[in-house]
Amino acid sequence: xxxxxxxxxxxxxxxxxxxxxxxxxxxxxxxxxxxxxxxxxxxxxxxxxxxxxxxxxxxxxxxxxxxxxxxxxxxxxxxxxxxxxxxxxxxxxxxxxxxxxxxxxxxxxxxxxxxxxxxxxxxxxxxxxxxxxxxxxxxxxxxxxxxxxxxxxxxxxxxxxxxxxxxxxxxxxxxxxxxxxxxxxxxxxxxxxxxxxxxxxxxxxxxxxxxxxxxxxxxxxxxxxxxxxxxxxxxxxxxxxxxxxxxxxxxxxxxxxxxxxxxxxxxxxxxxxxxxxxxxxxxxxxxxxxxxxxxxxxxxxxxxxxxxxxxxxxxxxxxxxxxxxxxxxxxxxxxxxx
Length: 338
Prior knowledge:
338 residues, alpha/beta
């Protein structure tokens, strides 16, 4: 059997969600898949649940390792993958039963390196995969809008692009050609990886199909803001994105686009300036100040305005950004509790 898609699922202490995730994967209408599940040192019942699914489905390949983090797990899983295409799944989310079939058929037809779809956000407890099956299993989505974009136009002009790697299906040959992998040892790996990858793809297929169900829950990395890992990760990601820019032969248009899409990562690092100084005795401007010009070069007015505020008073800019991000996370937390 030719493996069409390798689905890679790192899992760490998600015993409450992993069964739902795996059920959505083994229920795919595209059967020619392999499911690589990395149990990343879980200390709860995650491993037992994975083993129970493996006993019932020979397509599941399990890897048990000491905790090494999401990026290392993804990189390891991709290194073992034998499919024509890769799909990276988070263990607390689930996908439509038709997801892999529809993405695979359309990316093959287009000949593109990447296909990119939509998603639905839900709060923990509001939706389950069984609810989804009851409502939608009998109806395959039809007449979906499919468009092919130049990667620069897609990343900077379409208002469709976000960095979530689970919105992509990636051609394995394209993955093998990339001069980087997920950054290891830090959070915000999707920002670092997707922003590097997108402009190297030349063209991207967008399909108007919300196939991924993204769970919002307390305790996830998305809710973290001021812990030490978040602080150091933000700096590391900004440095990595700048280093990639310095070594990549971008056209003028690609340079503007890259500046635009990485500016949020630079601003996140600035927002944590005081916390970074407390943790490292170093200032953000001394570490990533050479990347601030991306804000001025960005196509977004809000980035250019922040460039001038940073140069006027970086302490004030840092306080403003921290308040803005904290307010956004507070809204997420309140919604998740309602």
